[in-house]
């Protein structure tokens, strides 16, 4: 039984190692511990980081401290093997972006009255809404953008909000970096988008999931960095 558990452990470990190489685009230094460190803020790796560090030590003991064929100084418990295989399975078949996305997504049109959108910000506790014109995506309206517009529109201590529309405010909104992906894109691919934007110094505000990944396709869900963090924490 011990030999079988060791074989299962090593197989799952090596497959996770391969996933780490792919996550890090096959760097020259493919040491497991180094790859794990570089991937510690990524999805399932974040959740199982501490366990994987310990399993790496166990793997080294199994491989490098073997007394003789069939006899190991260290041998994994069945629970350890099953957990490692579970991590490997999640990496093989990662959840979809839609699994962590905010759904359904509320959106508004440029001609929507601003007061209606301000009320929606308060009622739903969100910080941004997609805005459309004639079925075409034109940008994100954020609560910070509305506040900025209010500050710029103060006249003699008051702001005339009555009759104003989303379109009136959208011109004062920052141009936000938004990506569009299809409904079959995985959480890991979405994480890659956020990771890449951070590395390039272009903060990604949101990932919009649409039918076929088309910019103006039917909106199915929206993913922010907060969605990914909450999902990793199991909330």
The CATH topology assignment of the largest domain is CBS-domain
Q: How are helices and strands ordered from N to C? A: HHHEEHHEHEEHHEHEEH
Poorly predicted runs: none
User: What class, by secondary structure content?
Assistant: alpha/beta
What is the architecture of the largest domain at the second tier of CATH? Roll
Number of strands: 8
Q: What is the beta-strand fraction?
A: 15-25%
Could you name the CATH homologous superfamily of the largest domain?
CBS-domain
Number of helices: 10
Indicate the percent of residues in helices: 40-55%
Q: What does the largest sheet look like?
A: 3 strands, mixed
Number of domain modules: 2
Domain CBS: 101-156, 174-235
Keywords: CBS domain
Protein name: CBS domain-containing protein
Brief summary of the model shown:
This protein is an alpha/beta fold and 235 residues long. The chain is built from 10 helices and 8 strands. The strands form 3 sheets. Strands 3-4-5 form a 3-stranded mixed beta sheet.
List the defining traits of the structure above.
three-stranded mixed beta sheet, 235 residues, CBS domain-containing protein, 10 helices, CBS_dom_sf, 2 domains, elongated, CBS domain, alpha/beta, CBS_dom, 50% helix, CBS-domain
């Amino acid at each position: 039984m011990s030999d079988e558990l060791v074989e299962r452990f090593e197989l799952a470990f090596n497959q996770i190692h391969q996933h780490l190489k792919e996550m890090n685009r096959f760097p020259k230094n493919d040491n497991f511990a180094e790859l794990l460190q570089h991937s510690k803020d990524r999805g399932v790796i974040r959740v199982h980081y501490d366990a994987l560090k310990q399993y790496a030590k166990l793997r080294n003991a199994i491989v490098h401290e073997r007394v003789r064929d069939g006899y190991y100084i260290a041998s994994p418990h069945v629970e350890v093997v099953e957990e490692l295989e579970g991590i490997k399975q999640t990496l093989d078949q990662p959840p979809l972006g839609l699994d962590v996305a905010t759904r359904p997504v509320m959106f508004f049109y440029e001609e929507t009255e601003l007061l209606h959108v301000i009320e929606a910000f308060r009622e739903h506790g969100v910080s941004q809404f997609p805005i459309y014109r004639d079925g075409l995506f034109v940008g994100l309206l954020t609560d910070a953008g509305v506040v900025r517009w209010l500050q710029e529109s103060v006249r003699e201590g008051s702001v005339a909000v009555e009759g104003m529309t989303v379109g009136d405010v959208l011109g004062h909104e920052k141009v936000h970096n938004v990506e569009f992906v299809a409904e079959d894109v995985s959480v890991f691919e979405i994480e890659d988008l956020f990771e890449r934007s951070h590395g390039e110094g272009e903060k990604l505000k949101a990932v919009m999931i649409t039918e076929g990944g088309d910019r103006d396709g039917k909106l199915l869900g929206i993913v922010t960095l907060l969605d990914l963090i909450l999902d990793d924490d199991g909330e």
